[in-house]
Design a protein that fits this description.
single chain, mainly alpha, Leucine-rich Repeat Variant, about 65% helix
């Protein structure tokens, strides 16, 4: 067997890996044979020498068994020299074998990464597609394995510098491979840093169109797609829990239609807000946020867009990235809007994408004078009755998306003309017009006509519209005023689906509790004034003082009346007794007044001592706390919220309370607050309207999206035509679920015999044709005439 070992390399390889020192002589003999074969191979490198290939793979497999062998340490350098000198002329199989041997040595950490990386980029010049795929895959995998356990920042910086230099190479394949490697490492989270992103951004103005398109698609192509909604059971539990929290705030003793509609509106609002939270965040960690100088990048790409004569698809990509850079980083590029305006026509190819790019390029800091020509182009070219309803709907949707990012671009006359389409007969047109009206109801209702403004909500009165360039920085969290009231923690814990809602029978008890809690709130407000000494305290003191004065006044008037009567009688008799009596009466009145004052002071002191203890122990329900919040004015809410935020750290339970208050404010109609007793100029509350008439505005007011999906513009509300195969499949599915045709009235006795009519269905035609003939004889002349007429018309049609 020993004589067969030199020829059987796989068996020798296995034995060496098990016991390296016992087979050192066999290994050395094979290494000497490799050196001779290598010299022969250099004489004809283009030949397919499989013996040399087998020896190279053998040495690469057993190289880790002899790490201190000096001859074997030179083995990787020999392979690198062969690939660099004879790489393009080598046979593809031999070249692939040498590369795999180097990759094997690199995986065993017998070769530095920078050396092999340099060799890989040199071999990219070879006309071998399979080799390029192997090299690119190895580079990505190797860098990923280097950073698997910990980030090697020094080596990463060297690798990034090397790839950055390769981006300026003259060979397009090497540049494309370096770009693909960096993009793939960013996607895998290995090099997800600003340095890598800014190196990729330099390829956006490459002279090679393919390289430029690859870099631009990295920034804008990965975030396109449909938003997937999460359907986990945990999210459903959270939705139900949030819904129950909001319902606790509006349950009342009588279920009127108005209150029922209000409950439905709260449910719908909660579902929509939770659906938005469950959506996958698109463009959250996008590479566009990591660019150091977005203004320069946008200007250079826009310059290339105007100078180069590229394909239309490439121009669309350039418009997309420029619009996103403008919208995300709030840049100012005034020449971009007239360029887009040239493409805004219904007959333009991919016009919906261009409309989306126009909306993406809008942000609150763009002057309205730059955006108004774009709005006019959309209005004149799309929102006209000479085009189809689908075109009008897309134009209105594009206008809505643009105005949602810059509310000041619209003027009053144009808005009223567009809102007038809300009475259109086409569903897509009136839905788009109403969405635009709903947007301005929230953002700036003063531009709308009075009949289309709608009723203001509590949230709208807190967040009033701003002017162009105005920014209001808040020093508090809106809704934090509810934390001033002590509430039950059970109201904010997530409830399971199995828990049943309270029945209607418990409404009376709940309403009694509500009345008790409202009275307790009013008492609590009175008690707090003794502790804090606020404005309420002054009002109560003033009212108490007036009561004391009135009591004293009544007693003093009666005493004066008695004294006057006595004095008149004594005038007739004696003047001296008059003085004595009057002095005694006044002394009695003074003693009575002092006693009353002392009693009132004692009562107030008792209240001060007793009532703070009861206020500390009192805990309100969620419903009562929200009612107390809604009774406050916006200024009082802001003051309480700022005090709370500046005095404590907020927990998750606190944010849950704040979110519940925000949901109620969003659906609760604004009511003017209670006026003070001496203030008669305060407006009275307006009669409430059902919330079902109010449109839910969240989906039209959402300006957090950093790019405009095409689905928001192509909302045409029309059933799409489908092919015959899909119709047949739908028909077969309906046949399985539908009920059988025929009379639904079944037999009273399922075991009874069949009728004569049922028996005729199973007979042959010869048995019943005489009955058919008799039936024809019984037909009237009018029926025969109509039948003859139909047959003659059929013959004329077929002839």
């Amino acid at each position: 067997m020993g004589s067969k070992l030199p020829d059987n390399l796989p068996q020798l390889q296995n034995l060496i890996k098990r016991d390296p020192e016992s087979y050192r002589e066999e290994f050395e003999s094979q290494y000497v044979f490799y050196v001779d074969t290598r010299e022969i191979f250099k004489l004809s490198p283009a030949s397919k020498d499989m013996k040399f290939y087998d020896l190279v793979m053998f040495l690469a497999q057993v190289a880790q068994c002899y790490p201190k062998d000096k001859d074997l340490q030179q083995f990787p350098n020999d392979l690198v020299g062969l690939l660099r000198t004879h790489g393009p002329v080598l046979h593809p199989e031999v070249r692939m074998g040498l590369v795999k041997a180097l990759i094997l040595l690199r995986n065993k950490d017998l070769l530095p990464p920078m050396l092999l990386l340099d060799v890989c980029f040199d071999l990219l010049r070879c006309q071998d597609k399979a080799l390029r795929k192997v090299l690119q895959l190895h580079i990505i995998t190797d860098i990923k394995n280097i950073n698997a356990k910990s980030k090697n920042m020094v080596l990463n910086r060297q690798l990034q510098d090397f790839l950055n230099n390769k981006l300026s190479d003259n060979h397009a394949v090497a540049v494309k491979t370096a770009l693909d490697v960096m993009i793939e490492l960013y996607k895998k989270g290995v090099w997800r840093d600003k340095r890598n992103v800014n190196i990729i951004a330099q390829a956006c103005y490459s002279k090679v169109a393919k390289i430029m398109v690859t870099a631009i698609k990295f920034f804008v192509g990965n975030d396109e797609g449909v938003v997937e909604e999460s359907s986990d059971s945990e999210s459903e539990v959270e939705n139900n829990a949030t819904m129950k929290k909001a319902l606790l705030a509006i349950r009342v003793n009588k279920r009127t239609k108005r209150k029922q509609k209000k409950v439905e509106g709260i449910k719908k609002t909660i579902q929509e807000t939770q659906k938005k939270k469950n959506k996958n965040l698109i463009f959250d960690y996008s590479a566009l946020h990591y660019i150091h100088d977005p203004q320069t990048l946008a200007e250079k790409i826009f310059k290339i867009f105007n100078k180069r004569n590229e394909r239309f698809e490439v121009k669309l990509l350039m418009m997309n990235i420029v619009s996103r850079l403008i919208g995300i980083h709030q840049l100012y590029l005034p020449n971009f809007y007239p360029t887009l305006q040239r493409f805004l026509f219904p007959h333009q190819r991919e016009v919906t994408k261009i409309m989306a790019y126009a909306a993406q390029a809008a942000h609150p800091l763009v002057p309205p004078d730059d955006l108004q020509p774009v709005l006019q182009a959309l209005t004149h070219n799309f929102v006209t009755e000479r085009y189809s309803p689908e075109v009008m709907a897309m134009g209105l949707n594009a206008i809505r998306e643009l105005c949602s990012r810059n509310i000041h671009a619209m003027n009053e006359d144009l808005l009223q003309d567009l809102v007038a389409y809300r009475n259109s007969k086409n569903k897509g047109v009136y839905s788009a017009a109403r969405s635009l009206m709903a947007l301005y109801r929230v953002k700036n209702p003063s531009l709308l006509a009075k009949k289309t403004r709608g009723m203001p909500t509590e949230l709208f009165m807190e967040e009033k519209p701003t002017q162009f360039g105005e920014y209001t920085a808040k020093s508090f969290i809106p809704g934090a005023e509810i934390l001033a009231f002590q509430t039950r923690n059970e109201d904010f814990k997530p409830a399971s689906d199995s828990e049943a809602e309270p029945s209607d029978l418990d409404d009376d008890d709940d309403d009694e509790d509500e009345e008790m809690e409202e009275n307790q709130i009013e008492e609590e407000n009175g008690e707090e004034c003794y502790e804090e000494g606020g404005s309420n305290c002054e009002d109560l003191n003033a009212s108490g003082a007036s009561q004391d004065v009135s009591c004293e006044g009544e007693e003093s008037e009666s005493d004066e009346y008695d004294s006057d009567c006595d004095s008149d009688l004594e005038d007739e008799t004696r003047e001296e007794n008059q003085k004595d009596n009057s002095s005694s009466i006044t002394e009695k009145a003074d003693t009575k007044n002092t006693e009353n004052k002392k009693k009132n002071k004692v009562k107030v002191s008792k209240k001060i001592k007793a009532k703070p203890e009861s206020s500390k122990a009192q805990v309100l329900s969620k419903k009562a706390a929200i009612r107390a919040v809604l009774k406050l004015t916006p200024e009082e809410r802001a003051a309480k919220a700022s005090d709370i935020v500046s005095s404590r750290f907020l927990t998750d339970e606190d944010y849950a309370k704040i979110e519940a208050v925000r949901i109620v404010k969003q659906t609760e109609r604004y009511r003017s607050k209670r006026a003070a007793p001496d203030d008669e100029s305060r407006a009275k509350p307006i009669k409430d309207r059902p919330t079902s008439k109010r449109q839910k505005l969240e989906e039209f007011v959402d300006t957090d999206r950093e790019f405009v999906p095409l689905s928001s513009i192509e909302m045409i509300y029309k059933k799409r035509p489908h092919d015959k195969a899909s119709r047949m499949q739908q028909m077969l599915e309906n046949q399985q679920t539908r009920e059988k045709f025929g009379s639904k009235k079944g037999r009273s006795n399922p075991f009874a015999s069949t009728t004569n009519r049922e028996k005729t269905k199973g007979k042959t035609y010869n048995m019943i044709k005489h009955k058919k003939r008799y039936a024809k004889m019984k037909t009237s002349f009018k029926d025969k005439q109509e039948r003859l007429k139909k047959s003659m018309l059929r013959q004329l049609k077929n002839s």
